[in-house]
Amino acid sequence: MVNFKLKPDPMKTHIKKIKKHRIAIIQFISIFLMFSIIGHAQKSKEISLSVYPGYTLVDFEKALDYSDEYLEDWGEIYLGAALRGFLHLSSRLQIGAEVTWQQLYYAYYRLPYGPSPVYREFNVTAVSLMALSRYYLNDRFFIVGGAGVHIFNDGVSPSVCLEPGYMIEAGNNLTIPVSFRINPIFGSGTPIPFSVGAGVSYNFATDYY
Questions:
Q1: Are 68 and 60 in contact (CB under 8 A)?
Q2: Which site among 91, 129, 153, 202 is 20 to 30 Å from 19 CA-CA?
């Protein structure tokens, strides 16, 4: 008995991912520059890099169009890495944008195909682009809300995020944001990542207080 596994051309897939990431980064820069023009009078700008490990709640059958009875292995471990920029409009309110790479979930199927099974493997990743607003409840606690899109290899889906967190001072212009994030994606199977985040944020000025 001969078993075989259907996979896309790795070179074509790699080229598509490079183009997808390049487009997302260009879009992020464009949005941040737009915010910079709007907020030119507010001299304080902030950039941050954070990682988000967590869990993705997803309906595999709806997301991948295969019956769960053929699902042999799966993983719902989530990992995100976000680059963010903010403009400080006041001591409590900021607007910004982010570009995020996300590992959403994994699935491995063994499908009946005559005398020989067919194997299908899905390692689902996306690049998301979101516009954000952040509001400080006091000097340390904040809440972030955002809306945007997730860019997959085979399409684009709208998404939103909600993220309460706490800011830890680490230096004159350096802070460490820690947070909890929920990020529903309104596509097939409606994957919903839940994650905790931590990172480093640098503020280019301190005159907004």
A1: yes
A2: 202
In a domain, 32, yes or no: yes
Distance, C-alpha 20 to centroid of its chain: 14
208 in a structural domain: no
Q: Is residue 185 part of a domain?
A: yes
Mean pLDDT of the chain: 83
Q: How many CA atoms lie within 13 A of 119 on its CB side?
A: 9
Domain assignment present for 80: yes
Exposed, middle or buried: residue 41 (CB in 10 Å: 0-12, 13-18, 19+)?
Answer: exposed
CA 134 to CA 5: how far, in whole Å?
Answer: 46
Please write the tens of the pLDDT for every residue from 149-205: 999 988 899 999 999 999 999 888 899 999 999 999 998 889 999 999 999 999 886
Whole-model pTM: value is: 0.77
